[in-house]
Amino acid sequence: RRVPLEETTSSLREIFSQLQARGAVVAFTAVEGLVGGKRRGAYRAICREEGVILVENVLGGILSDDSLCSDQIHPNAMGYGIMAGKVAEVLAPYTPQTP
Questions:
Q1: Inter-residue contact 50 to 17 (CB < 8 Å)
Q2: How many CB atoms lie within 10 A of CB 47?
Q3: Helices 5-21 & 37-50 angle (0-180, nearest 10)
Q4: 83 Cβ neighbours under 8 A, 6+ residues apart
Q5: Which helix (H) or strand (E) holds 54?
Q6: Which ranges of 3-97 would DSSP assign to H, the alpha helix?
Q7: How many other CB atoms sit within 10 Å of the CB of residue 13?
Q8: What is the chain's pLDDT, residue by residue, as a tens digit (99 residues)?
Q9: H/E stretch holding 51
Q10: Which of 4, 27, 57, 94 has its CA 20 to 30 A from that of 87?
Q11: Would you call 23 exposed, middle or buried from its count of C-beta atoms within 10 A (0-12, 13-18, 19+)?
Q12: Is 53 helix (H, G, I), strand (E, B) or coil?
C-alpha cells in the first residue's frame, strides 16, 4: 500500500509477463478491503489486459469471522480452506476435466 500505484502496476505486469513467458497460466488473488478502489480498478484492468485470471475478494467474509482467523490479518486453517475453495471455483473453467 505504500508503493506508488504506477510502480505496483509496472511490477505486476513484469511478473505476469515473466510467468507467462515460461508457459504458466497466471491467477492473481485480490485482497479487497486492504486496497482502495483505485488499486482494485487497476488490478482488474491489468488482469484483463494481460490475460491473467483474477480471483476477486479472496478474503471476503473470512477476516470478519473470528472463527476463521489466527489473528487480525491472517486466516487460520479453516479460513485458508475457504480461500482455496474460492480459488478452485474461479480456476475450474480452466482445469481439464477427466472423464
A1: yes
A2: 20
A3: 30
A4: 29, 58, 59, 62, 75
A5: strand 53-55
A6: 5-21, 37-50, 77-91
A7: 14
A8: 688 999 999 999 999 999 999 999 999 998 876 556 788 899 999 999 999 999 998 999 999 999 999 998 899 999 999 999 999 999 999 888 777
A9: none
A10: 4
A11: exposed
A12: strand
Place of cell 482494485: 40
One DSSP character per residue, 70-90 reads SSSS-B-HHHHHHHHHHHHHH
Give the residue from 25, 33, 32 showing the smallest Cα distance to 53.
25
3-state class of 38 per DSSP?
helix
Long-range contacts of 83-87 (CB under 8 A, 24+ apart): 83/29, 83/58, 83/59, 86/55, 86/58, 87/27, 87/29, 87/55, 87/58
CB 43 within 8 A of CB 23: no
| All three cell numbers of 34 | 486492504
